[in-house]
Amino acid sequence: MRIGELARRTGISERALRYYEEQQLLRPERRRSGYREYAEGDVRTVRNIRTLLAAGLSTYTIAEVLPCMTDDGDALVPACPELTTVLSQDRDRLTTAIDDLLAARDILDAIIAAGRSETAQPASDPALTAAPAG
DNA sequence: ATTCTTACA
DNA sequence: TGTAAGTA
């Protein structure tokens, strides 16, 4: 199938599908016309790519992990022994990112709390007092 | 009508 | 990523 059909069947933009190829996530064949020719299995592959992206993995990691994943119809299953190690490392990276965000929120909370107890309101910047547009 | 590449916002 | 341009 050509890119238009794959885009329609997966709900992913043609732009994104070409980007996935650039990132080595998909390797469609080429016709003499230059048109990309995708295999039936690519429909499932694209869905798996979306799943992995949603898991916070980079396209680089997905590229090296995708060939080691088996798809039993509904779930992705690691097929290589060293795969779980790589995934665990990414999990640790997410944990660190989450901790950083929690720390950032705590700082904002402290500043916001300080503002609530403040009596004087030297709000001179109109950008800070304007009502939210929406 | 579709797709392709390149490039800019 | 979206989109426009200029093709094949």
From TrEMBL:
UniProt xrefs under SUPFAM superfamilies: Putative DNA-binding domain
Family annotation (Gene3D superfamilies): 1.10.1660.10
Keywords recorded for this protein, A-Z: DNA-binding
InterPro entries with a match to the protein in the record: DNA-bd_dom_put_sf, MerR-type_HTH_dom, MerR_fam
Keyword check for Transmembrane helix: no
Annotated ranges, domain HTH merR-type: 1-68
SMART domains per the UniProt record, alphabetical: HTH_MERR
Any matching Pfam family: MerR_1
Name listed for the protein in its UniProt record: MerR family transcriptional regulator
Gene source species: Micromonospora andamanensis
